[in-house]
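Subject: two folds for Thursday's group meeting

Dear M.,

Sorry for the delay on this. The cluster queue was jammed most of the week, so I only got both jobs back this morning. I'm pasting them in the order they finished. Each block is the input sequence followed by the predicted structure tokens. Could you check whether the formatting survives your parser before we put anything on slides? The first protein is the one we discussed after the seminar.
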Amino acid sequence: MKKWFFLVFGVCLVSLLTCSENEHSGAGGGSTHALVEYMPDDLFDWFESLPDANITLEDVILPNGMRASVFLEWYQNRLSKITVDDDDYQESDVNIKDNILGLMSDKGLFLTERSNFIYPDEGENKPAQRGLAYVWGGKQINVRNTGTTAGSSCTDSLYGLDCSGLIHQLFRHAGINLVTGRADDQRRVRVLSAALTARYPDARLIVEDLGQIPVDEFVSGDIIYWRMENATDAHHIGMVLNTGGDGTVIVHSRGGRNRCEFNRTDGGPEQKYLVRDGVPVASRGQTYGIVRINVADAWTLRLRCEGRNYDMLSTTISIPPYTDFEEYIFILAADYGGGPLELMFRLRRNSAEQTLDLRLYSLNAGRVDAALFHLDSDDTGYVDMDRVVSQPLTCVGQVRLVRGNQPATGLERRRLSEAAHGFCDEDKKCVTFGGR
């Protein structure tokens, strides 16, 4: 029995020690087993073929439809008005989620902007840098590191991160202590859920592994990972940014255990890439998956005029089950002709009757519309709204509720006006964007 054990052990050990660089080169943060991490060459080369994404926070669209820069400004302004005496204050789960995603987006763009990280030559094996490098096992940006993987031929000590180190930094910027381990750890639903619960124990935040969904369904803040189809562990990880433009952006750190020159070059590792034609399943049998932070009991609210075949706007709301509640949502949007709309939705839930009474106040158009929903299905279909006040009548409004958080559309991308800021500050409990 002992002879067979040592024979099998010896074969396994030799197998590990003789793995080729092609099989086990590249982005740190995950593996098909516990000892060796890699990014296959075809995935590495696919990223090499993509154009750089020259974007700022002004270009990033959050799942609620707002530009990340606008939402973060609005949210910080809102929080600054809350005092320690506001015992009855409770923040919207949707606002919490979008603040997390907004902060992660902000940090991702900062870390991938090479001009933010200029370092002088500090002597032997400590070269000058323009931008963060790829450092195997690197989790911090303020210290030089040669990497932590045995067998690497790279000797330079660099400021940089590996792929899981970048994701750790993004969550840390949002106040969430995500593990600094492998990519496969960070993409696990239970790991992300535990980190979110530790930071927001009362919020109805959930984590979903959506698998290989189409690129046009990606939203900002989605975590994207890659693994081999015959393996359970992910070997690379990054984050998605949605710009609402001609492509999706992937922010990640890409390098290799023995790709020494690439790891430190100006054109290399910490980058954001523009994906226009989908994320391919690579030739070596790779697949990708999307992990999304969402809100429990999330619904997508859609609004259109009767006779139109597309929505004027859609946005995410949160409808907690089994409780009576009243919430107000304030939204800046645009009509079909591009004119500005200032809308306020009042949501009033009757848990005993399982109904939702919705009122829509068009603040700059002088009209009020109402609809009553029975929440006994995942899709209510379009419901004609009753005109409570209509001056002037422009169209018959139709509204629809669909369970789940879908990408928002039709929302105005301009900065919030001073009037909107004043409205939001006047009554913190009844003016939120996308929730309670």
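Second protein, same layout:
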Amino acid sequence: MRTRLAIKTHALIERFFPERRLFLRSDTDTRFIRLRPETQAFAFAGSAVIVAWTIVATAILLMDSIGSGNFREQARREQVTYQQRLNALSAERDKRAGEALAAQERFNAALRQISVMQSELLESETRGRELATGIDVIQATLRETMKEREAVSDRLAALEEQIETGSTQVASAGQSDSTMDFLADALARTAEERDKVVADAQAALIRAAEMQAEIEQMEDKNDRIFRQLEEAMTVSVKPLDKMFEKAGMNPDSILSQVRKGYSGQGGPLTPLSFSTRGEEPSEDTKRANRILGEMDRLNLYRIAAQKAPFATPLKDPFRFTSGFGYRWGRLHAGTDFAAPHGTPIYSTADGVITFAGWSSGYGRLVKIQHEFGIETRYAHLSKIRVKVGQRVSRGQRVGDMGNTGRSTGTHLHYEVRVGGKPVNPMIYIKAANDVF
């Protein structure tokens, strides 16, 4: 059975590949090589496999080349789009910075206006107290004048009675004319005194009416000043409340901590107290005290904002290259800013330098400890310009941008940590951009 199958297979192969002989002839001899059908079939199959493999490999290489070209083109287009987006964001940031500067100027102008209004309010309160004192004096004078008028009226009645009595005696007893002259002179003096008292009383009433009108005008002026101050306080304080809340900070707790460090009293923000007789403060006094309380809150906010990192560590043009979050399963604990080598890096808040040196993957690193348990980090610096223990202010230069440590290019790695845990720095930067 096996022999018959082999014979049939040999016959089938021989049908397509008949036996051939390859002659090799020399000057003295002739030889030939016998090519059996099976040998030719194996050679043809091997050649076919090699040709097929060559075609497939060439096709794969062509497809890979075409795919790589498309991928590079797509990557280039995405890079151009990304660059355009970064440029747009940079332009938007510059615009926001201009708006923030204008808002800061308006805020400072509002503070100056508030200071002027406060001075005017204090002057108005002083003038009001003077007018109130003047009215009290006029009322006292008017009461004395009325008493004198009543006394003069009594004297006049007594003199008239004496005159009537004197006339009866003259008629009966025939007294001399000297007595009548004396009584007439006394009656004339009494009438003059009465007229003078009446004139003084009318003048006092007119002056009192004038002073009352002045007081009403002053009250209207004070009311306008109060309304302007209350509106200014609302416009100024509410955005600051939102700024601290967006940063995840309790405004009342923050202000309480600031107040502990600035607990001295005195000066223009001391609550008003005009009464020295234990009387209940007036509505204007309560209103003024509420405004002064809001001004004190605004001032505490200003101090707190200086101590928290509500700022950007760069003043020169830059672009964001990487944000806060997880990348390839690892937490990127900060925000990256790209700019030319040596770009100045600035502190984002008042604080104390706790580290300034080399730190493995961070490269040259500066750590600043701020109030409220906040720490900021500035990594991959090319140069450090501060020392450990040094106290720095917001906007003070702490180093230059570089490419040290685990870094693929010149940039700043900026971190914000609260209680030792990293938080997104953009929370503070965006919160500040919404206000300043």
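Two things I noticed about the second structure. Helices lie at 2-16, 37-173, 177-246, 251-261, 283-307, 425-433. Residues 170-176, 265-276 have pLDDT under 50 and may be disordered.

Cheers,
T.
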